Amino acid sequence: xxxxxxxxxxxxxxxxxxxxxxxxxxxxxxxxxxxxxxxxxxxxxxxxxxxxxxxxxxxxxxxxxxxxxxxxxxxxxxxxxxxxxxxxxxxxxxxxxxxxxxxxxxxxxxxxxxxxxxxxxxxxxxxxxxxxxxxxxxxxxxxxxxxxxxxxxxxxxxxxxxxxxxxxxxxxxxxxxxxxxxxxxxxxxxxxxxxxxxxxxxxxxxxxxxxxxxxxxxxxxxxxxxxxxxxxxxxxxxxxxxxxxxxxxxxxxxxxxxxxxxxxxxxxxxxxxxxxxxxxxxxxxxxxxxxxxxxxxxxxxxxxxxxxxxxxxxxxxxxxxxxxxxxxxxxxxxxxxxxxxxxxx
Length: 345
Fold this sequence. Notes:
- This protein is mostly helical.
- It contains 13 helices and 2 strands; from the N terminus they run H-H-H-H-H-H-H-H-H-H-H-E-E-H-H.
- Strands 1-2 form a two-stranded antiparallel ribbon.
- Helix 3 crosses helix 13, helix 5 runs antiparallel to helix 11 and helix 11 packs antiparallel against helix 13.
């Protein structure tokens, strides 16, 4: 995925892979350090300004309003997420029927009951794609090997090469992603992150081109195998989107809960700073930094923790949404003129 996106490993790690609580913690530390540096470096310093006016009360009064408003907004977001799960009996029955139809399709494709956990669900589809790719490669290569004594035509050589490249790409990519998914626990982002690494759109486009260019050279069995391979790749797209949607709901519920947890201590700290702290509360300096500046900076960092959590989670959700906007072999960005899909970056 990182190679197709053309972005640095650090950026991908920060936006997607890193633990969201760690990202929020780093943002909070950055805010604290920046606040102390500005409060100490600029003239007049924070203790001097606090003696002449009352910036502490002004700052934390505004933070109290922001915390209450933000917590209320988070509750609203949580209600919207839960609303999607509510509905009349008929709608719930249609959802269940659609889900069972997909499971029946996957069971027919894999010759086994569809797994119930998201990791196994996606892994079963990847296994079916890998198996179909191996079968069509063996079929094409066995025919060309039987005719090895005759001069191979350019078209037959191109078919052999194209099927070999396609099958190798599908098998390698599918087995790699299956290894990443295996044992992954849903809710930790591991399942969705691994699924992003399977570039199904490009492979569907290659099957379509091979069928169009070499359709007259394919046997009926090979056409059927390519059709089944295309079907398994096509099934991976909605399956991944379904798992991604479930993760979005899971993450938004977690975000709402964490922000509400963080809002209570943040509100207490902001209230204490308004009611208790003034220029004489934290006298003295350490290493040239006023204790009042450290106290106000720490309190400000704590009060913005709910916002840091919001930024950390929404960055991942928006990045994931952008990289999975299209479903199918559609090109949403310049891929170097290859004409191949980049929808599953």
